[in-house]
Amino acid sequence: MTSVKSQPNPKPEPQEQGKPPDTESDAYERALAQLSSMRHIAAVLASADSLEEACRASLDSALETLGWDVGMVHLRDEPTSGFKLLAWRGLSRAAATRVETLTPEEAPLAWLADDTSPTVVASAESNPRWEALGLHREQLGFIAVAAIRVEGEMVGTLVVGDRSEQPPTELDLLFLEGLALQTGVCAQRLRLRQAYEENLLELNALYSVSRQVDEQSEIAAVLESFRKSLKTVLGITRCAVYSVDETGKHLRCVAWHGIPDSLVRVIEEHSHRGPFRKALNTGEPIILRKLEDYNGHPSVSELAQEYQIQSALLIPVLIGRHGWGILSLYDTKPRDWSPSEVRLGQMLAGGIAAALTNIEHYRSLSQFAERLQRLHKVSTQLMEAEYPERVAVLATESGLALLRADVVALHSYDSQYGVLKLLSAHPPHATCVPSVVLPGRGFQGKALRDGVCIARPVRLARAGFDGFAAAIPLKSGEDQVGVLSVYRDRLQGPFSDEEVEFKQLFASIVATAMHNARLFTRSEELGITRERNRIAREMHDTLGSEMASLLKKVELVQVSLEQNPSRAKEELARIHEGLQHTIAELRRLLAALRPLTLEQDGLLASMRRLVKDFEDQASVPVTFTVEGNLPSLSPRVETTLFRVLQECTTNIHKHAQASSVAITLCMENRQLFVTIEDNGLGCDTSRMEAQGGMGLRNIRSRVEAAGGRLEIVSAPDQGTRIRATFPVSQAPEG
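RESULT FIELD:
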């Protein structure tokens, strides 16, 4: 509930100096304008390139929508611990910039310390707040202050005011609060992007180096770069590099020079024992001064002798303390490897290890930069989604690759039942994801209860899953949004600390997007409720009076039929015209409402009645099939299904020239599928959607707004198949 705080008010002015109070119609129109403005500014902020641009857009939207005179936006300046003015309108520069000189206790941010709702401060001659801000000379009637928050923390304020004495309404303050919230979401996105761009500048500096290394076949190129040094310093022309294979028991040759393939393969085959294994286990070089010193396997000695290899130096390649592999140096004569030659060989092995480390490091940085780019793209899509269902679908679909997981699920917290309900899972057929989770039960419930990320091994025998899972609570400020769950097969190993941190970053973006979508949904529901009330009043005031007037005209016609037929004919014409106007008005009013038949008869009965009407009007047989029992659906999904069927049957009647239609509803893997197929003329879907209007584009927008996906398959003279898919979570009974 929005609260209003005020300083002592000045003496009241005459009513004509203020703004007249809004009528109910004015209030509705004002609410509609504010809702439209909120949707517009959300799109503008989603594309803003700087904080200054975002703050100017927010301030302009506030003043234009509310019709007020002055305003300013300031944010905390982290380096100075002060405040930075980013936008102002209608104020003198001295008054606007004064906020940058205030202490944290004097700034408008401190006015909201005890309340999260916007604060209204009325003008007064001795008002210390006005004097601190330098507003006592601006001749203002009031100012309203709303907090700009990032992850629940107040980082700035949106201050707007007017020179009239008429205080703002609760609806005005609600709009101001939503606008400040949108500004905070935009500030968070821009800060994430700024951090990403700073990292990208560093990554670009490393990219050219990593690209060169990648283009040189990695280890073979590294060995080639050392081969010249070996020949110059040690007189060695034959060498090889071996790495430990996945089992950790054998060596695998990754690069060699001057030795035959057959010798390489024999050493690989018998590397689990002998001097190669000893060097790897001890981390110390092994010197083979002559061929007889090799005791690994006779076949190695035989091939070495055949190819005139008499001595060798085996040096472990260590990355950290981990034995990565062996650098082997060969000579064609018996050789007494001196300590200096051994040290030089170790330095070369260390160079190889450093090169390998750099290769992995650069590759990791490149992969991380790519993931950040993808995360930025996904976060933009999430912030633009208007409904929680759509946010959930986008988060789970994009999270599959972004989080390197086999299954990603999003459970939404249902405060009514106190449980977690599955909102979306990808892939949809995953059986390891529960539909409902009680708080404190399972790793998702514990993550929600404790407010911490939980990553652990999970084995679900009934679901056939054995691997690792992580559950990250979704919170926006103090609000419990839900839980993001990530599953990975055991063969891929557990989640590293870096992976968990990245998942938490992704989850924070999802939580903000979910919170933003919920706010939008609540504001939309508020607008719908007000619209329903307005239509009810309008039907009573307009249609009621028109019907009463028509009734009187009918009575007049009854009297005039025998006495004055010409006048009766004129009245009948007026009645006909009035009825046409009344019917058109009634249709206009009903078009904005949820179909009445859904409220009275439910979804299936309404759809069957719609199909029956279509058959009667179009004379086209329809096969209507429902497979299994449909779960309880949200009003939005029910309305969307009905409207999609209504739109499709209308299009078939008008354009398809079909001789048969098949409609199927079925549930599978927690998804509801609705398929509408006809054998008519078909169409070019790309051209039809590009034209817009009330056709395929309208159907797609309806489905996506309800969190679903739409597939349209059609071609000229080949009929049309439209399939809508909706994620469905079964709510607990209670």
